[in-house]
Amino acid sequence: MVRTKKKQTDKNFFTDVFEVARLIPPGRVTSYGAIGQYLGLKSSARMVGWAMHGCPKDVPAHRVVNSKGLLSGKHHFKPPEKMERLLKKEGIAVVNDKIVHFADVFWNPSAELALDVAKPRKKRPKLG
DNA sequence: ATTCTGACGATGT
DNA sequence: AACATCGCCAGAA
C-alpha cells in the first residue's frame, strides 16, 4: 500500500487510512499524524481525521487520538463516552479524556509496520 | 470560483 | 505551560 506518487489524495488515501487503522493492535493507540506520516502525508493529519469521519465500522477509530493522547474524536462517537469506554476495555487507562501513559501504548505504524520502503533500518525501535 | 470549516501538528510568543 | 498563528488539503455551502 505504498503511496503512489500521483494523486494520492483520492479515495485511495482514505482507504489506506482505514487499512492502517485496522492494523492497530488492541490495547494500543496511534495518532492521526502518525498515520499520515506513514502514508506520506506527514503534514496532513487533518486529512486522516477527516478520513475517519467516514470510516467503516471495522475500523477501530477509537484507537486513534491526537498527538497529545487526547480523545479529540470522542465527540463523534454515538455515545461520546464509547471511545473512552472501548479504550478502557482494551486496558488503556483514560483520565480526563486523555490517555494515561500515552507513550507506552503508542503504536507507530512507521516503526511497527516497518515498511522499509526506501531505507532499511538495522534495528527498529522496540515498543514492547 | 471563493470562503469556511475541520476527529491535526509544529512553531512562536 | 497556556495561548495564538500558520500550514495542511479535502469537502461543504
Automatic annotation (TrEMBL):
In terms of Pfam families, this protein maps to:
DNA_binding_1 (PF01035)
Its GO biological process annotations read:
DNA repair; methylation
GO molecular function terms attached to this record: methyltransferase activity
Q: Where is the signal peptide?
A: none
Give every Methylated-DNA-[protein]-cysteine S-methyltransferase DNA binding domain span. Answer: 12-92
| Keyword DNA damage in record | yes
Q: Which UniProt keywords apply?
A: DNA damage, Methyltransferase, Transferase
- UniProt keyword RNA-binding, yes or no: no
CDD domains, from UniProt? ATase (cd06445)
What protein does this entry describe?
Answer: Methylated-DNA-protein-cysteine methyltransferase related protein
Q: Which organism is it from?
A: Ohtaekwangia koreensis
